Every structure is written in C-alpha cells, then in structure tokens.
Amino acid sequence: MTEIIRKIQDSEPNPDDIWGDDRLYRNEIAEHLTHILASANSPFVMNINSPWGTGKTFFLKRWQLSIRDKHPSLFFNAWETDYSDDPFIAFISEVKSQLQSLGTRKQTIKKKIDKLVDTGHHIFLKGGPLLIKTFVRYALKEKGVDELSDLLHGDTVKDMSKLVEKLSKEAVDEHLKKKKSINSFKAQLENTVTEITSGASTLKLPLFVFIDELDRCRPTYAIELLEHIKHLFCVPGLVFIIATDTCELGHSIRSIYGTEFNTDGYLRRFIDQTYRLPLPVYEEFAYVLWQKLDLESIIQSHRKIIVYRSAPQLSSLFATCAKSFQLTLREQEQCMSKFRAIVIISKSNEIHLFPLFMFFLIMAQIKMPDAYNDFHIGTINLQQFYRIIREEIMRLRRQDVQILKLVECFFLNISDDESIKQALAPYARNTEMSYEDGVIYKLLFSINDHLADCRAHLNLVEFVSRLDPEK
C-alpha cells in the first residue's frame, strides 16, 4: 500500500555519479567555493546561508564527496547529537571516528588522534563544580546545607572565608591548567592535520570540516559548539563550512541573550565569510519535490486525473500556481505533500481529480488562511472566496490572467447545477472558437460531467488542511 504521508528526505549521494541528481546546479558552486577555501588563509570559517528546505544538506554531502580525492574532510550533523549535554564531546568523538580513516599512515594518525582526544577531555574535566554550586545555593539561603556538610567542618561561618579563599585559588589554578591544555590541544590538532596529508598521501591541506543543521539545535548547544570551534579547533590547515538558516540561528541566539541582542555582530566573531546559497527557481524546486514524493508514478496509476495539460507537465503547472501565490519553499513543500495525500485518497475513493483546481485550493488554504476559514465556516461563499484570491494574485503577479480564467471555471460554476449550464451555453452556440476558448469549453464540459467530484475537492482540502507540520 502506498503511504499517504511521506516525509521529504534528501537522498544519499551516489559515489559513482555524485552530482547526477543535482537539478539545482550546485556542482559549479561547490567547485568555486572549493577553490576559494583551498586558497584561504586558514583557519577559516564559511557560513552557507539559506532558508530551510533549500537543499543545504544535499549540497554539503555531495560537496564533501566531490573533494574526496583532493582534500581530507569530515562531516558533522550537529542536530543528530543535539541530545548530548556537551557538544565538545560529541564533536571530538566524530572527529576521532572520521579522521582515523584518512591518510596513509593510519597507525601514526590513530595514536595522534587518541592523544588529541585525551587532551581534549582534560580541558573539560570539571574541578570543583559541587563546591561552587553549593556555595552559591548557601549564599542565596537555598537548600544547600546538606551538600556543604560533606565539605565543611567546624564552625560553618568561620570556615566560609577559608572556603572562598580556597575556591579562588583553585579557580585560578584551574584556569591556568585549562589554558595550557587548550594550547597543547591546538598544537596537537595542527600536527595531526599535517600528518594526514604527509607521506604518500595524495590529499592536500586544508582539511574541510562540514557542519550541518546547526540552526536546528537547542540554542545553548549551537552557541557552545560555535564557541568550541572558534577557540579550540581553528588552527592552520582547517576550514569550516557551517550550513545554517542564519535568520533562524539568530532567533535561537536571541532566545538566550534577549530580543535586542545584536546577533549579526555576535556571529561575525565566529564566521569569516558568508555565502548565500541561491534559491531554486519555482520550476526546478517543483521538479525536485515531484521526484522526491514519487508523484509521477502515483499520478500515472490514478485513472481519473483530468488535466488540460499532459501528466508529465503537472510539476510545471504546480510551479506556475506556486509562483502566482508567491509561495515560500517551505509552503511549496507543504502544498506538494498535501496534494500527494489527496491524489492517493481520491484514487481509493474513485474521485475524478482536477489538479489545477486542487493546487489553487491547497495554496489558498496555506497562503490565505483567514479567507479560507471564512469560506469554510460559511461567512463567505465560494465565489467571494475566489474574488479574494484573484485580487491577491493580481496584486502579486498581473501576468497570470490566463490561468485565472481556467481556475474561475471551478470557483464560479460548481456551487449549483444552473451555474455550470449557464457557463456552457455561450460556447455551445459558438462554432468557431479560438484555441483559448476551446480549452475553457473542454474544461467546463469536464466539470459538468463530474460536478459532484469537483465539490468533493472542497472536503478533501478541508481534511488535509488539518495535516499541518510542526513549526
């Protein structure tokens, strides 16, 4: 049985044809950015900025694979380790796992990496957290006395000053130790990176580190990972490529530091250069979604699809409608997923389906929820709903008059039997029609034949309107 709901997921790259499924022309972008970063004065951090759903993961995975014979690289999906309390441990573990397979002198590299990881762990050994925590709680007169009882002896008040002095000294000593460990860690990291490209290895520096999905992480996790990258991993021979929806990442940062916090200035501390990934055009993106949702085979198995264009061009029709509504990429994905569900449901219920009408209904529901709700509860009728849609589309894109003529065949004529008959009457008396009039007449004739199914479109859209994704 074909699943009605399908999550849109990026396909894994084919090692033998890395960019074979690239419909958005990302190959050339990867080549240009590789040349730029290979010649950059490392360490260097580049941010690939693009909204959700624009193919950042698709791009990064293929980019990494495309440089496998030229530069060492590793890939870290930050969101997959978001459950961890410590992003450093998660990141250094992935570094260890992936770097061990690089270079020609694998045993030497393994030893260096083991030493590197051991040094890294020493940096984050938390000396005295209980002392600090309980002292603060005691000072605030919270329930910390029981914890302090294990640490303090004699008169508590008299020993408090000694405790503060001890804590201060330990804090200074701990800071000096940590600073020494950080310097040692960075030196070992640089040495390890150099070792990977030495000897008989054909790989050349820099080592590319791809970090994906940072903007999806918990705010504290994302911030800590950025801090670690900047202060621990930025050494000569390393370049970082961080893919984010920078706007969303900014929201995460402001949730920690406040709504007035200057996120642009903050991120410039970590990022040397930002590349804005070009947004795909409507036709390209519709085609990609169409393929990912396997709509071609689903449409072909539905024997009651009625179109004024051939089935292979339906993705192009979807793109035209999406352009009319000026849908965002996220909205296009939602519309396509809902359309897929409707196709499968209508097939099982043997409902004749008009994709053009369905596209407009779904898109209007997503883009104009207030007007759609007014129609659904009966405040306005279908004709009034259409006039609101038409007014908005004409405001956005005046060149879509022809497609509106086709759509209004549905909106203005399916409410009652007399409307469709009156719409057909002028064409029935016209023996010499233009091509455009012929298309409209044919569409009206099909609507008249399947009037009940056209009305069923409204119920189907109402059903899928309740299948909204989590924000």
Which characteristics define this entry?
21 helices; 60% helix; Rossmann fold; mainly alpha; 471 residues; 2 domains
Structure description:
There is one protein chain. The model is unreliable at 126-145 (pLDDT under 50). The protein folds into two domains: 25-102 and 203-279, P-loop containing nucleotide triphosphate hydrolases (Rossmann fold, 3-Layer(aba) Sandwich); 282-464, no CATH class. The protein has helices spanning 26-38, 56-66, 87-99, 106-123, 129-139, 145-149, 156-196, 219-233, 246-257, 263-268, 282-292, 295-301, 314-325, 329-348, 355-367, 369-376, 382-396, 401-411, 417-428, 435-449, 451-464; strands at residues 44-49, 73-77, 207-212, 238-244, 273-276. The chain has a five-stranded parallel β-sheet with strand order 2-3-4-1-5, sandwiched between helices. It is mostly helical. It has 21 helices and five strands.
Query: What would you report as the Rg, rounded to the nearest angstrom?
Result: 30 Å
Report strand order across the widest sheet. 2-3-4-1-5
Into which percentage range does the β-strand content fall? 5-15%
Order of helices and strands: HEHEHHHHHEHEHHEHHHHHHHHHHH
Overall mean pLDDT stands at: 83
Q: Helical percent range?
A: 55-70%
Weakly predicted, low-confidence segments: 126-145
Number of helices: 21
Overall strand count: 5
Given helix and strand content, the structural type is mainly alpha
Q: Quick one: overall form?
A: elongated
